[in-house]
Design brief:
Length: about 260
């Protein structure tokens, strides 16, 4: 986060333009259908949109509006909120410049199809990939209602790992039939990168791309027990593959590394 300054981190962090990267690596079939894109909230064609959809801003995290019933949506408040988001630089205004990948993204609004049944978002499968190999899986359940999580190793063995104080999932967990396809997609997207988190969904037997995350938890999440910090770090071969060769801040300039 502090010293990598490759344009590839900007590409990966841009939720709109990363779609081209995904399409080039694994194909368009893994992209969530895009209903509208623009930079002016006043131009969103609400009358032409389906009853359910998701509105996002592409240049940060937690810029999401899940519309489960369009008839209940306050369009005026929605447009005002989007204008507020678009005016923010997620890197500089909210996190003091640390997540540099977000700094130079051109803000835009995206409207995507709603994935899930009965108005509930599907489980979010987060694949932690090191040098193109998935080593850890985090599954988030009901992220925007009754959020819980579970961690697994590569062989689908559940771990005692906990992070960020989110409630551990207590229910029975069944992996989707296309889980191995999800692993293949994640590793294809992560190939050639020393570390990246690949977020995917499985809906009605299909794999969908969620996002690429360069900075898991903004680099601030504590892991419990602490042994997992070392186990995960052991997988990180920082000198093996790095798309930012030649784009790291030199030691002599690191006093101004937020520039």
């Amino acid at each position: 986060m502090l010293f990598e300054r490759s344009p590839v981190w900007t590409l990966f962090s841009d939720k709109l333009r990363v779609r081209d990267y995904v399409a080039s690596r694994v194909g368009n079939q893994f992209l969530v259908p895009l209903l509208w894109v623009g930079e002016n909230p006043a131009e969103i064609p609400f009358d032409q949109l389906p009853d359910k959809f998701v509105i996002k801003a592409n240049h940060g995290c937690d810029y999401n509006i899940f519309v489960k019933d369009k008839s209940q949506l306050d369009q005026v408040k929605t447009r005002l909120l989007l204008m507020k988001w678009l005016a923010q630089n997620y890197c500089q205004d909210l996190f003091l410049g640390a997540p540099w990948g977000y700094k130079n993204i051109q803000p835009a609004i995206m409207v995507e199809s709603f994935l899930g049944d009965n108005g509930r978002v599907p489980p979010d499968y987060k694949f932690f990939c090191y040098s193109g190999r998935m080593e850890l899986l985090k599954v988030d359940f009901n992220r925007f209602e009754d959020h819980s999580e579970a961690f697994f190793d590569r062989d689908m063995n559940r771990l005692t790992l906990l992070g960020r104080g989110i409630r551990p999932h207590r229910g029975k967990i069944s992996f989707p039939d296309n889980y191995q396809e999800m692993v293949q997609v994640a590793e294809s997207l992560a190939n050639g990168i020393d570390f990246i988190r690949v977020d995917l969904y499985s809906v009605s037997g299909r794999v969908y791309f969620g996002e690429l995350t360069c900075y898991h938890g903004g680099g601030l999440i504590r892991l419990y027990p602490r042994k997992y910090d070392f186990l995960l770090g052991k997988n990180w071969d920082y000198n093996h593959t790095r798309p930012s060769q030649g784009n790291r801040v030199p030691i002599s300039q690191r006093h101004s590394h937020y520039e």
